[in-house]
Amino acid sequence: MFKFSVGPWNVHSGADAFGPEVRGEISFADKVKKFKELGFDAVQFHDDDAVPDMNDLNESQIRAKAKTVKKLLDDHGMAAEFVAPRLWMDPRTIDGGYTSNFAKDREFAIWRSLRSIDIANELGCDKIVLWLAREGTMCYESKDAITSVRRIIEAINKMLEHDKKIKVLIETKPNEPVDISFCPTMGHAMALSAASADPSRVGGLLESAHAMLAGLDPANEIAFALSLGKLWGVHLNDQNGMKYDQDKAFGVQNLRTAFNQIKVLVENNYGSKGEYIGLDVKAMRTQKIENSYRHLENSLKIAKMLEAKAKKFDYAFQKKCVEARDYEALEMYVLELLMQG
Ligand code: XUL
Ligand code: MN
């Protein structure tokens, strides 16, 4: 049985790049209550989801604020899974944080990252997620790629140094909001881990849609990190082709691919070390406020149904097909497994 997690950003008021909010905002406390009712076990945080005005606070004030959030989680029987520094909203990180061309901006990015670790400590979690949103280029010639990669490694090392227990999970994405990312795939994340000061504390978080945007198979991206013992988080969702990041409900577009993501997680006992299945899904803009959670309910239901299917998978039949090299028969078996009730 998997444990599931979700972020407060997964219930939102529907603004997109082309239009304003279409639903009212729901308070953080109401979201946490509802997440629990829906069957989630943990909440994922950006640093400023936990401490909204953190730029105006000192280190001990930030810790004190985070403590009040921990109390709210405890009151609802929810854990915190990770904290992610939000390094893409501030005027100082317009062109990236760790890879900004300006030393002052890079310092700010490190300050936010270290404060994210402090917040994680207060929330009782040991994971920092780096979605390297603007660590890339809009204009290729604007940054030196080699210097930039080394700066990302340096930033990770500073985090490892700040807290000897913290784990850093790199969430890879090939583009959006940047044109070209410095860390587009799980292979890149694993290479950064190997180059860091403590590879045993640097791993990966795979988001299905991000893998698809890179033209890659999310199940194999998951498998790649699992094979190195470094898959410490997932953001399961779905995506219709290589366009903008859609964060569709899990499995609604590519059901067989969704099945294979769950199958590889089940087969490798994902979750046995406390890892969560994160659902990084967004409601369609057309949803009314009373249906703000439907995409989460659907994703949870689909993930659980696919978990049951994965557990029913007939490995003896699979072996027979492989021995006979009859992959057409195997493929039909998988399709029947998915389509039959
Ligand atoms: C962006 C994305 C983020 C991260 C958290 O594409 O997936 O929600 O998961 O910062
Ligand atoms: Mn994500």
The count of β-strands is: 10
Tell me the helix content: 40-55%
What structural class do helix, strand and pairing data support? Answer: alpha/beta
Globular, elongated, flat, extended or rod-shaped: what is the shape? globular
pLDDT < 50 stretches: none
The fraction of residues in strands falls at 5-15%
**What compounds are bound to the protein?**
D-xylulose, manganese (II) ion
In whole angstroms, how far apart are the ends?
A: 20 Å
The major beta sheet can be summarized as:
8 strands, parallel
Strand order of the largest sheet: 3-2-1-10-9-8-6-4
Instruction: Kindly report the average pLDDT value.
Output: 98
In N-to-C order, the SSE pattern is EHEHHEHEEHEEHEHHEHEHHH
Radius of gyration: 20 Å
Number of contiguous helices: 12
Which descriptors would you attach to this protein?
two-stranded antiparallel ribbon; binds D-xylulose; binds manganese (II) ion; 341 residues; alpha/beta; 13% strand; globular; 8-stranded parallel β-sheet
Question: How are the SSEs ordered, and which strands pair?
Answer:
Layout: E1 4-6, H1 28-38, E2 42-46, H2 47-50, H3 59-75, E3 79-84, H4 103-123, E4 127-131, E5 136-137, H5 145-162, E6 167-171, E7 180-181, H6 186-195, E8 202-207, H7 208-213, H8 218-227, E9 231-236, H9 255-267, E10 277-279, H10 294-312, H11 315-323, H12 327-339
Parallel strand pairs: 1-2, 1-10, 2-3, 4-6, 6-8, 8-9, 9-10
Antiparallel strand pairs: 5-7
Helix pairs in contact: 3-4, 4-5, 8-9, 9-10
The structure holds D-xylulose and manganese (II) ion.
